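STRUCTURE REQUEST FORM
Protein name: GAD-like domain protein
Source organism: hydrothermal vent metagenome
Requested output: structure tokens
Priority: standard
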Amino acid sequence: MELNEDFQDVLEDFGEPTTYDKPQSSELDAWSRHIPEPLVDFWHTYGWSSFLKGRLWSPNPHDFDPLMEVIFEDDPEIDHKKCHLVAYSAFGSLSIWSEQFQIIRVSLVQGWIFVPGITDNELADDPNKQATFPFSGDAKTSYDSMDENGKRLFSRAVKKYGSLEPGECFGFFPAHVLGGGGNLNDIQRVKALEHFILLAELQPLTLMKWEGTTMVPVRQIGT
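Status: completed
Returned output:
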């Protein structure tokens, strides 16, 4: 299946992904009712996969439905049943597609969430044009994490703890919200779903918006 021009640009910037599972075509066809078609086409070609040596993962969204429920179940605006995790970074940054509000970005480590469709009424007339949003960051810097001295962690974490397997992430112990420093020696390789749920339960996420170059809190998710 030929990918559209936007996804060809992603492959040029990020390189070929590493496929770890190929879902059935019928399973992916069902996703086309909920997810932008170009992203589903990407899944038809590459399946569930990882980019950048494990910095970024594009998993089966169904595997993370329990996380969507934990994050959004009590929210007055966002329906967790219409939220689908389409990518996550090795350190817990989430890219979520909302059938209501389109792009949702979450940092579980920092405890914030951006939903431009709510805060700024930014909704694309053609959702298919938003399909590459999980891959909109800089391939060299956006899917890493910094230690207290501003040094990037991913490559050092892989060297110390080994490469991530599918379904894993790097977690900080103790977590930032519990006073952890976020340094190399604080890292463990853990199951991504369980760790992401733990982080989501440790603190309520705060809906943020940009005012100029400043992040401004809007409200807590779930209230």
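Reviewer notes: The radius of gyration is 17 Å. The mean pLDDT is 95.
Form closed.
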